[in-house]
Amino acid sequence: MDFHLKEEGMRIDLEYGQLDISGDETYGFRPFQLMVASIAGCSASVFRKILKKQRTEIADLTIQTKVERNPDEANRIERIDLHYVIKGYNLDDDKLYKNLALARKNCSMVRSVEDSITIEETLETIELSR
Hints:
GMP Synthetase, Chain A, domain 3; three-stranded antiparallel beta sheet; three-stranded mixed beta sheet; 3 helices; 6 strands
């Protein structure tokens, strides 16, 4: 990957499109936002694949995130809470938590930071009727 200097940050051209990165979000995505998005996106992607394999029918999946940063250490990310809100049919919370633990084990982004950032995952289910 090649990153290129721009007036207020960096830019990279990727297959999907152009990504602008800047400490000032009027000029691009902030680095910490990209870190949180990478962790949430990877986790959700792996989780979704597991649910699909097990034929768990979901209608919607949202992840609400909370980030704790330490201003005394360059605003370092210390904790990320991922709260999954799952809408679906015949949902089993115990099975979903087991699948979430399996997704965590297989998410490369979570595994890459697990020794330096605390990542807490919770979920809530909303049962839909047919």
